[in-house]
Design brief:
One of its GO terms (molecular function) is glucosylceramidase activity. The protein has 980 residues and is of the alpha+beta class. It contains 21 helices and 33 strands. The chain has two domains: 386 residues; 370 residues, Glycosyltransferase, CATH 1.50.10.10. Helix content is 27%, strand content 17%.
Length: 980
């Protein structure tokens, strides 16, 4: 057993964090109105907590030797990409100047329109307005401050509402933000988070007789595909005067005209005051970005009410070179508590000079009687309507569907945010309260469940409106003036038609992508164009072909069209919708935004049936291959030209990976079973057939079971596999079952029979070669780790149980394997306080054959816990998952809150912060409350030919089904009978 480490984290567990331990009961009672008090179940930190620098992982000497050639090739590739002004999708050599620390908090904004994170101590940081670029350093001019005057001005308090523990503050004679009062110690101030809301309670700081609650609200609302796309947040201040004197309280919101990075001091930025409807007033900050990226406009505003007065200082600077300085606006607020009303008529500022920072300030002031209360609301919005990719197209963001493509729409968004935030909160509470009030769930699980959703905002998400690029930028110019699009026509084979009931996939023609000509000399400007004339002719075998062009490329009804969605594998691994990881993370989207989840699956269905023959050098072995192979599920949707240049990952040839295709089939079936969306199932069925048939080449001995090829050919891309593997083999068994079930539900009995026969043979081979009496061996090879206990060995069982399909194995084998994982991978590592280590030898020692085998992967641990829940092992499940909370989220943990990494080692060194896979915690909630459609799904016995009743369209679905069937001609043996 591994020795226990020192520290409180591994000696006790705190199952709940009572708010009374952070805020006095009296203060909670005073704030118990208008949602000003945080919920009892919340993640909490004191503002005076120290933000430790995080420890990054390092490879061992032997690992470095093994990876030396890969390292040299990767270094060369990173330099080559940099020479073209591009960031390589994986770059372990470049480090951020701002070292990562335990300082994060709930991010701002909805999904897909850029994001801004906010640390628990109040600093705004991690700006991701430009896709794939994260500016980590905080912009310290972005702050809230407070000014309090009592007793006719004889008693005054003022402070920035953030602890003054930052570098660069306190310079003597400075005209910038060092001249402000950074008086807050944070000793009596606390932060509380249940994403997408956060509360900061100032319990008598800086004025002992004033209680202040700042509530941060973002429009992340499940099943709401409009407001959830908005780039905005609201800050609601609740002020309670407990003193005997009337108090004038002024709040100040300052914001720099900056998105960090290259354009921070590049000049040309303009500020402009505005007065809008319903008392909403503020400043627009027009920002000119660098490298030809689309401009950004910020809007900072407050809402004027009967007792709240709003004024602005539209432009101030940070040096004595500026006419209005940071020091002068602070002095004005300290003296008067407001700015001159004439500032609203100032008009646009002179553009900033290179090296100069333009900032803006919005003030809201009110008088509060003794024992009185007051509410003040601010909002921040940003508008960058177009999203531009370096090598590809420019698209309109999702919110432009509702607000248009002008940067000035920020003023309308900030107005609507201030008008609608109460409704947002009502919807958020309706969603969250049933879980937060469920006494059967531990408190740590409740708030961690919601807080892990931070990634859908700050994980680099892009949400576009529609499928076509913006019209005004079809030919993107690079910095040096040359067209950045590939200029030579490259042949891209695209499978477009004829998926027969026998399962044959036929190539119909060749076409090109990104506006190049197809084989017939016809151009297209919309990437992969799968349209082709339908044919009424039957093929030689007498089957009517199912035309893919009318299925996959079919535009949904406008009410169903939610645009297209991308999210990064991680802030450090810049690849869009990495599919082997989406397998774990997708439960969150399916549960909360199912239309987005189906949209992503449709994108991958298109990708399966396409082929891109451009050459790529794979860095692991130095060999070359083609970028995208027909029938193979891509690793990702690309980096610099998503949807059109897929497989940005180039370490291994992922067309030889064994987990991607089964994962596609499993996700498609799960999504179909959960949503009951028949048109989706018909749309993606040709891709399912192609993906399954593609995998048959990896069954070398004809036993129905795929074999691995002696290299890391799956998501554990540093962990070599030989022969049959528990991970990929189990996924393949599950995919066979899911494909058979889907075939039968769509009426394609020949395919169903084929997959059932293969399953029967494969299951016998799998158990014979890997089952050792208590768990499934890592693989069937003879290496030193072939008998290792892999935490993820039942990944396929996890999915079939989540989808309402029969178990892959006998119940006693499933529970035996899970118990082995719990006893060894979980409990033998720091007493179960860290999660499940990926690999463990049967002697109780961690498998250190590679860096990934010795890591604890956060998302995998959540997936293992979900599998335990589905197998009736809830106590073990929550103990397993609690290790991730204890190490990553607890007060005495490693400090990974709101930046949960891919994984960590047993000594707490992380790898890849802000990572997609931890969203898998939502698979635990999925397991705890399976949808009715899953619970009532008809069962299929994979071991015999029992009758399976195909799905029948409901009365409401009849029109949709008939429409799809008519467009797709005749579907052999289908339940959809059309009159073609």
């Amino acid at each position: 057993m591994i020795d226990m480490v020192s520290g409180n984290i591994f000696h006790c567990r705190k199952h709940s964090w009572p708010s009374e331990e952070y805020i006095s009961r009296a203060t909670l009672q005073l704030l118990d109105f208008d949602s000003a008090a945080p919920p009892r179940q919340a993640w909490r930190r004191r503002l005076n907590s120290h933000a430790n620098i995080l420890k990054e992982f390092s490879v061992t000497f032997m690992e470095a030797l093994k990876m030396m050639r890969l390292g040299v090739r990767l270094w060369s590739y990173v330099r080559e990409e940099a020479s073209h002004g591009r960031r390589a999708p994986i770059d372990p050599f470049t480090r951020e100047s701002c070292k990562p620390s335990a300082s994060q908090g709930v991010p701002l904004g909805g999904m897909g329109s850029g994001s801004i994170s906010r640390g628990f101590r109040g600093e705004f940081r991690h700006m991701q307005i430009v896709p794939g670029i994260c500016e980590t350093s905080p912009v310290m001019a972005n702050q809230f401050s407070i000014f309090i005057s009592r007793d006719g001005g004889n008693k005054k308090f003022s402070s920035v509402l953030a602890p003054g523990q930052h570098e660069g503050l306190g310079k003597l004679g400075d005209q910038g933000i060092s001249s402000w009062n950074w008086n807050l110690s944070g000793q009596h101030s606390t932060y509380h988070a249940v994403f997408p809301r956060a509360w900061t309670i100032y319990d008598g700081e800086p004025d002992p007789d004033l209680k202040v609650s700042c509530r941060q609200i973002s429009p992340f609302i499940p099943h709401n595909y409009k407001d959830s796309s908005l780039p905005s947040a609201v800050f609601v201040y609740t002020l309670v005067n407990t003193g005997k004197e009337r108090a004038k309280v002024s709040l100040l919101f300052t914001w720099a005209n900056s998105i960090g990075g290259n354009s921070h001091l590049s000049g040309g930025h303009v500020n402009e005051p505005f007065r809008g409807e319903d008392g909403v007033s503020g400043v627009l900050l027009h920002h000119k970005t660098a490298k030809g990226n689309p401009p950004v406009t910020f809007a900072v505003a407050a809402c004027e009410t009967q007792n709240v007065n709003v004024t602005v200082s539209p432009c101030f600077g940070l040096t004595d070179q500026n006419r209005v300085t940071a020091k002068s606006i602070w002095d004005t607020m300290a003296e008067d508590g407001s700015f001159d009303l004439g500032n609203f008529n100032a008009g646009s500022s002179v553009p900033s000079l290179p090296g100069e920072t333009h900032c803006a300030a919005v003030s809201a002031s009110a008088w509060i009687e003794p024992h009185g209360k007051c509410t003040v609301a601010f909002s921040l919005a940003w508008s960058s309507p177009k999203v531009k990719f370096l090598k590809g197209n420019t698209y309109n963001r999702r919110y432009t569907k509702f607000y248009g493509t002008s940067e000035r729409s920020a003023a309308h968004i900030v107005h609507d945010s201030l008008m609608n935030y109460k409704w947002w909160e009502e919807e958020i509470e309706k969603w969250q309260n049933p879980i937060l009030s469920d006494d059967s769930l531990p408190d740590w699980y409740k708030f961690t469940l919601f807080n892990e959703l931070y990634f859908l905002v700050s994980g680099g998400t892009v949400w576009i409106d529609g499928h076509s690029p913006a019209r005004d930028n079809q030919s993107t110019m690079s910095q040096n003036g040359h067209n950045s699009r590939i200029e030579e026509p490259i042949k891209i084979k695209v499978t477009v038609a004829t998926v027969h009931s026998k399962g044959d996939v036929v190539i119909e023609h060749e076409s090109c992508i990104n506006g190049f000509e197809d084989a017939n000399g016809n151009g297209n400007g919309n990437g992969l164009d799968l349209d082709q004339e339908n044919s009424d002719e039957e093929d030689a075998a007498g089957h009517n072909p199912l035309q893919l062009s009318t299925l996959v490329d079919q535009k949904p009804d406008d009410s169903e069209d939610v645009g297209r969605f991308l999210y990064l594998e991680g802030v450090e691994y810049v690849m869009w919708c990495t599919y082997d990881v989406h397998f774990y993370a997708s439960y969150a989207l399916l549960a909360l935004f199912p239309k987005i989840e189906l949209s992503i699956q449709r994108d991958f269905a298109k990708a399966v049936l396409s082929e891109d023959r451009r050459k790529v050098k794979f860095l692991a072995d130095g060999n070359c291959g083609i970028r995208k192979v027909k029938g193979a599920v891509p690793h990702d949707l690309g980096t610099h030209d998503p949807w059109h240049e897929m497989n940005a990952y180039n370490i291994h040839d992922t067309s030889k990976w064994k987990d991607l295709n089964p994962k596609f089939v499993l996700q498609v079936y799960r999504d179909f079973a959960a949503t009951g969306d028949v048109s989706f199932a018909v749309d993606v069925w040709p891709a399912v057939c192609a993906a399954m048939e593609y995998m048959e080449q990896f069954d070398k001995d004809g036993d129905g079971l795929i074999e691995n090829d002696g290299f890391p050919d799956q998501t554990y891309d540093a962990w070599t596999v030989h022969g049959i593997s528990a991970y990929c083999g189990c996924l393949w068994l599950a995919a066979l079952e899911a494909a058979a079930a889907m075939a039968l539900r769509l009426g394609d009995k020949p395919f169903a029979d084929k997959f059932k026969n293969m399953f029967s043979r494969a299951k016998s081979a799998f158990e014979e070669k890997l089952w050792n009496g208590s768990y499934f061996n890592y693989d069937s090879g003879s290496s030193s780790n072939s008998r290792s206990i892999q935490a993820d060995q039942l990944a396929g069982q996890w999915y079939v149980a989540s989808s309402g399909l029969p178990s892959l194995f006998d119940d006693h084998k499933i529970k035996s394997a899970l118990q082995k994982i719990f006893d060894f991978n979980v409990m033998k590592v720091r007493g179960g306080r860290m999660g499940a280590v990926n690999g463990m030898h049967p002697n109780g020692k961690v498998d250190e054959s590679c860096m990934q085998s010795r890591e604890i992967w956060t998302g995998v641990t959540y997936g293992v816990a979900a599998t335990m829940i589905l197998s009736g092992m809830e106590e073990q499940a929550f103990t397993t998952a609690e290790g991730i909370f204890t190490s990553g989220w607890s007060e005495d943990g490693f400090g990974y809150w709101f930046q949960t990494p891919e994984g960590w080692t047993v000594d707490g060194h992380y790898r890849s912060l802000i990572y997609m896979r931890p969203l898998a915690i939502w698979s635990m909630q999925w397991a705890l409350s399976l949808p009715k459609a899953i619970l009532e799904a008809p069962k299929i016995n994979m071991m015999d030919r029992m009758l399976y009743v195909p799905i029948r369209a409901s009365h409401n679905d009849a029109g949709i089904v008939r429409k799809v069937a008519n467009k797709t001609k005749c579907f052999s043996n289908s339940v959809f009978h059309c009159a073609c």
